[in-house]
Every structure is written in structure tokens, then in C-alpha cells.
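Repro:
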Amino acid sequence: MLPKNLRLKKKSAFAATYRVKNSAYKGGIAMFLGLAKNASGPTRVGFVVSKKTHKRAVKRNRLKRLMRESYRLLLKENKTGNAEKYMSIIFVGHEKAIGKSFREVKFTITKLIEGIN
């Protein structure tokens, strides 16, 4: 589980990250990047799967758990690359990602993070 200081929680923080419109999409997962940092502090990360994606909460929560664990392992291995330059990151799961295995989700998250300039 991600530590509390790395989680994006407030609605205003999510809205501010979406407002920047800096995003990438791959394999059913979209990534939104917040503003570049001015102050020191860790990059905060949020995970979202909309109710429109799938009506079953079990399916939505599973996808969020897979994305969260993938990011946690990348953070543990110090393979986050240029992601540390940003204040916030949001990963949004879409219908195409529902039902994917952990290996596929981790590969997608890895490719999205590697693509950050």
C-alpha cells in the first residue's frame, strides 16, 4: 500500500491535475500529469476507475488495486524515471483494462511512466 504522503486524496487536487491537460494513454489506462514542482516534496498519485467503465464495484476496485500495486513496485525499485518532476499523477482505468492480468497492467504503467519527458 502506498504511504499516506504519496496519495492524492482531495477533490481539488484531482481537479487541478485534470485542468493541466497533460496526458498519455496506453492499453486502457490513461495518465494525467500535474504541474512541474517548484517546492520539494514527493509526487502524489491517484487512481480512478469510473462507474461508467464497469457497473460492478468489484471489477473497478480490482483494477485500482492492480494499478496501485504496479506503481508501488516501480517506486520500490526506483524505476519511476521523470515522474518525480511532477506534483501529481493520476492513473485512470478504462473499459479496455478491465480483466487484464497484473503483468499486463504493470507493463502498461511502466510504459506510461517511461514515456514521461
